């Protein structure tokens, strides 16, 4: 629940079957101020979680922008659409500003791998979302094309080695 200014990085280890994957997670915060720099963080990404605030319709419009950005620059990237602040809706503090059918239609139109409502405060659906990403990656590695035509390549196994910014 810490506010991101600029970009933040975290690594998360997730078990899929008998393997453990390490997800490198960049939180770019989606701010217009850092828009040009964001491409640095999602370059060669295999998956992107595009988030929007369930209680703010302008946030959903920004999410559409980010999906377009990803599709323009990272055609091999799986997109996961994520509504945030679900706890505020559940507690009756705020209302959902974007109709769920509109969101689901958008997710279908862009070929999103998954759409989920989440809460950073309660943790609702956060683990499930990351698990789905790891399982999708694991299920598609080594295949030339995923079901939606996006290329996925293996990266796991290298996480134990030190890497510089330009090494592969």
Automatic annotation (TrEMBL):
Q: Which domain of life is it from?
A: Eukaryota
Q: Which GO terms describe its molecular function?
A: GTP binding; GTPase activity
**Would the keyword Nucleotide-binding be found if you checked this record's keyword annotation?**
yes
Q: Which UniProt keywords apply?
A: Nucleotide-binding
Entries under SMART domains matching the protein: RAB, RAS, RHO
Q: Does the keyword Lyase apply?
A: no
List, alphabetically, the InterPro entries matched. P-loop_NTPase, Small_GTP-bd, Small_GTPase
Instruction: Extract the PANTHER family matched here.
Output: PTHR47978
Q: Which family does it belong to?
A: Belongs to the small GTPase superfamily. Rab family.
What is the name of this protein?
Answer: Ras-related protein Rab-24 isoform X1
Give the classification, highest ranks. Eukaryota, Metazoa, Porifera, Hexactinellida, Hexasterophora
């Amino acid at each position: 629940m810490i506010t991101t200014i600029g970009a933040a990085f975290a690594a998360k280890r997730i078990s899929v079957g008998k393997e453990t994957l390490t997800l490198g997670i960049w939180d770019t915060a989606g701010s217009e101020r850092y828009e040009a720099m964001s491409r640095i963080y999602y370059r060669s990404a295999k998956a992107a979680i595009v988030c929007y605030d369930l209680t703010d319709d302008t946030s959903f419009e920004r999410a559409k922008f980010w999906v377009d950005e990803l599709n323009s620059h990272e055609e091999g990237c799986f997109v996961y659409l994520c509504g945030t602040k679900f706890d505020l809706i559940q507690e009756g503090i705020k209302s959902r500003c974007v109709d769920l059918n509109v969101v689901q239609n958008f997710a279908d139109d862009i070929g999103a791998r998954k759409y989920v409502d989440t809460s950073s405060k309660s943790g609702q659906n956060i683990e499930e979302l990351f698990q789905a990403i790891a399982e999708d990656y694991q299920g598609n590695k080594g295949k030339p094309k995923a079901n939606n035509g996006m290329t996925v390549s293996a990266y796991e196994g290298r996480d134990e080695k030190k890497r510089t910014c330009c090494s592969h």
